[in-house]
Amino acid sequence: MLRRLVTAALVALCLMGAVAVGASGTATARAGVGARIVGPDHGAANPADWPFVALQYIQMGARTSLCGGSVVSSRWVLTAAHCVDDVQASAVSLYPGAYTRSNPGPPQVPDSALLFPAYSSESRSGDFALLRLPSATSARPVAIPAPSDDAAIAAAQAAGSAAQVAGWGLTTCTPDPSDPYSCSPTDATATTLQSVTGGVPLITDTACNGFYPGDFIATTMICAGNAPASNPSLRNDACSGDSGGPLTGAVNGRSVLVGVTSWGFLCGEPDYPGVFGRVTAARDWLCDTVTSPTAIGATGGRNSVTVTWTPDTSTCGWRDPQVKVTASPGGATATAALSAGSVTFSGLPRATAYSFSASVVSSSGAQPPAATASGSTSSLPDACTQTFYQQGARTWRNQAAPNGTSAVRVLSRIRVYDDPESWCRTSLTFIFREKRTQKRLSQLPGSTLGYRTLTGRDFSAPVVSWPTTKEFRFEGSDPTGLGRKDARLVLVSYLKRTRGMPAQSNIELVVVRRIPTNPAQAASDTNPLFAQKNSFGTAVGWATVS
Q1: Catalytic residue among 74, 82, 284, 364
Q2: Cα–Cα 20 to 30 A to 10, which of 56, 117, 209, 471?
Q3: Does residue 381 lie in a domain region?
Q4: Closest CA to 138 of 108, 111, 165
């Protein structure tokens, strides 16, 4: 790659740029900035060591420029901002997981190109860009350094530990007679991915500032190289065409992406190491961008829609940004942590179509494209669910019914719990039976049923009917209060004592929930019993007659 000329204290520097290449692999023109692998120890890389590398071609008018990149998640490639600055995403062809330029596999044209918000084209500070793939790649992503890795990276710089660099850029850099700060147009790029045997040593920030006084910015840049190789007059380095490619290092027992190939003075020159974008400087922006949902779904309920996504918890597990979802029409918003995987919009009008967009709310300036989905609230109910359980103790005793019949008086308190989407008409049938014989016990006139909400308000006019002498039925819907999430029923029953009923007898109460087979009928206020069927019967307890 060609290096853009920078001046500081009259020191001319060349940024590693995107070198223009012809069909033969010879650098046919210089465009922008870039870098390549040069030096006496460069050679064909082991593809198993670089499954995440991406080959990148940028169409710039009649010229095609070369850069590298690193797959950082299934849909995102990290590269140098100077490779794609002022370039439409549609002009870029990406080959994730490529090894040879002659057979790189099918290209992917990114649907979005995002520059790091703090990128400066003048100083090359913040030289990062993210390209979003239109579909997921099978190339294995490289690990992003976590905050817990920062101390280890600093220690590796201090120790001069070896880092690894790879790319398809120039393999030699002969100074151009007409431009001594650029490589000759006759220098050739590599056809096979190149790396440096043994790697290139990391350099401390203080040492690098000594090589590039005034141009090196330690907060956003990191240096590597400049150690004598087998040929002491030439150092191993990245060069033109390698821009955007990876600089990796062994950190805390694993290989992580330490830098992005950015700039330097020519290539492999003594006392001029390669300069790379410091990945930790853009970590929050990178993480917020690549973990933002790329696809969402929307499932409608009666008066609600739930928007779901699959959270990316592997790329940046230490960071859990908020996801903001916006509904249209209306502009309602809901926010949840990325790891939550869903938000629910409640209180929406029924039978209404909505579109939803979702993306992270970033403190780092990330603005990834929003994921979108459509969903509608239901026009008809989908299901009715309801559960019952005993709320309190029942009392029982021998007592004459109001009509004078010899009876057993049973007081039952039952709690009814509806799901949050409860809307169905409530149709409950209470059946008493002698537990030992399972024989039903008739309820006598004078039995009553009331209910209250959890506010404690009692309703004195229960809705009751006796379809048979052996069943006691409650019918209710939202207007009666049982469409609430939680309610209590109080049932006072007079059960006729049958001949032979022992003085001590277990009486079992069974509650049957009835659900209409036709959802439209379930919501009907005019014919709630139409086409009903028994949903389940639950024995909620029993009493011992004394």
Answers
A1: 82
A2: 117
A3: no
A4: 108
Report how far residue 218's alpha carbon sits from residue 207's, in angstroms, rounded to the nearest whole number: 11
Same domain for 367 and 496: no
Active site residue 42: no
How far apart are the C-alpha atoms of 534 and 417, rounded to whole Å? 18
Cα 130 to Cα 116, 226, 422: the distances in Å are 8, 29, 46
Question: For position 429, which CATH number holds?
Answer: 2.60.40
The token pair at 363 is: 């403190």
What contacts 267, CB < 8 A, 6 or more positions away?
3, 16, 35, 36, 38, 170, 173, 183, 237, 238, 239, 240, 274
Rounded distance between C-alpha atoms, residue 171 and residue 493, angstroms: 95
pLDDT tens per residue, range 326-367: 999 999 999 999 999 999 999 899 889 999 999 999 889 999
- Do residues 264 and 237 touch, judged by C-beta distance below 8 A? yes
The Cα 349–Cα 330 span in angstroms is 11
Per-residue tokens: 156:
């590796």
Closest CA to 137 of 47, 245, 55: 55
- Which SS3 state, helix, strand or coil, does residue 78 take? strand
CB 42 within 8 A of CB 171: yes
Let me know: does 6 contact 12? Beta carbons within 8 Å. Answer: yes
The CB-side HSE value for 195 (13 A sphere, CA atoms) comes to 19
Check whether residue 262 and residue 320 sit in a common domain.
Answer: no
299 in the same domain as 188: no
- Provide the token pair at 444: 């006598």
Name the domain boundary from 220, 250, 282. 282
**Same domain, yes or no: 154 and 203:** yes
- The DSSP symbol for 385 reads -
In a domain, 288, yes or no: no
DSSP SS3 for 74: coil
- On whether the CB atoms of residues 536 and 516 are closer than 8 A, the answer is no
Q: At which of 351, 376, 401 does a domain end? A: 376
User: One-letter amino acid identity for 506?
Assistant: N
Q: Is 155 helix (H, G, I), strand (E, B) or coil?
A: helix
**Of residues 41, 127, 149, 284, which has the active-site annotation?**
127
CA-wise closest residue to 257 among 86, 378, 128, 428: 128
Q: If pLDDT is split at 50, 70 and 90, which confidence band does 258 have?
A: very high
| Cβ burial, residue 440 (10 Å; 0-12/13-18/19+) | middle
472 alpha-carbon distance from chain centroid: 51
CA separation for the pair 390, 388 (Å, rounded): 7
Contact 50, 6 (CB under 8 A): no
Catalytic pick from 243, 262, 362, 505?
243
Residue 271 sits in which domain range? 5-282
Q: Is this model's pTM higher than 0.85 or not?
A: no
Cβ partners under 8 Å of residue 440, min gap 6:
431, 432, 433, 470
Question: Does the annotation mark 243 as catalytic?
Answer: yes
Model confidence band, residue 474 (pLDDT cutoffs 50, 70, 90): very low
